[in-house]
């Protein structure tokens, strides 16, 4: 259960794993961040420290609270090093079924029988991920949103075997880290990923067709619908490689309305994934700040 003595493991130190580990450590939970890539792991820990230091500068976090959170965070390159008494493990590895199944299988071999094993998948089947486990009833989707330290929602995704005890305990975990949770029956793309994928894909079709520039498409959503970020900005933040993977999956399961825009395919083939590569729809400097006037103008094919 989610008392302050509970231990949490986060597997995957990418953008989402970093944010999720910060969410738990900042609330005083002993948090182990795991990644086989030592360089990525060190970068993630530095990033979490940076978020905490930024909170101190803004007056949102005291120096003592930041120090406590940093002390709560540890790292490892092996899932097998997870503490056996951890109450919750969340995997945030790449959107690949075989990789996720390997992680949850390894986790089940280490953790106690009543530990919750959660997946942050944005599109894959929780039921399929859990199918390789002896106790699939304790597997649930915990779909966080980026940036985790600012976004308040968590989609709790129910697989076929997810039981009531797992649901209740996971809802308590969300409350403990000050997040609002909703329950979603498993379906391709859940609720938000499905809507976001369609919005981002349509925005790219509009850009490709020359309907408007990238800046104006994003401005339309921010100013016309009060979205905090435009769909093309969000795609650059999430990564167009990830977006393409999700769209391909939704296209195969839900049909033609999710067919990926050719411009997304072209950008991914060119390595223009977004912020993480310094170039997507927009260009970014070494600090990850968007370069003014760098957005694509449209009519590109």
TrEMBL record:
Q: Which SUPFAM superfamilies match?
A: 6-phosphogluconate dehydrogenase C-terminal domain-like, NAD(P)-binding Rossmann-fold domains
Keywords in alphabetical order, please: NAD, Oxidoreductase
- On whether Cytoplasm is a keyword of this UniProt record, the answer is no
- The 3-hydroxyacyl-CoA dehydrogenase NAD binding domain extends over 7-186
Q: Name one GO biological process term.
A: fatty acid metabolic process
The record places the site described as Important for catalytic activity at 143
Its name, as the record gives it, is: 3-hydroxybutyryl-CoA dehydrogenase
Which InterPro entries does the entry link to? 3-OHacyl-CoA_DH, 3-OHacyl-CoA_DH_NAD-bd, 3HC_DH_C, 6-PGluconate_DH-like_C_sf, 6PGD_dom2, NAD(P)-bd_dom_sf
Question: Gene3D superfamilies given for it?
Answer: N-(1-d-carboxylethyl)-l-norvaline Dehydrogenase, domain 2, NAD(P)-binding Rossmann-like Domain
Q: Which residues form the 3-hydroxyacyl-CoA dehydrogenase C-terminal domain?
A: 191-284
Residues bound to NAD(+) are: 12-17, 35, 95, 100, 122, 146, 276
GO MF terms listed in the record are: NAD+ binding; oxidoreductase activity, acting on the CH-OH group of donors, NAD or NADP as acceptor
Residue span of the signal peptide, if any? Answer: none
One Pfam entry for this protein is: 3HCDH_N
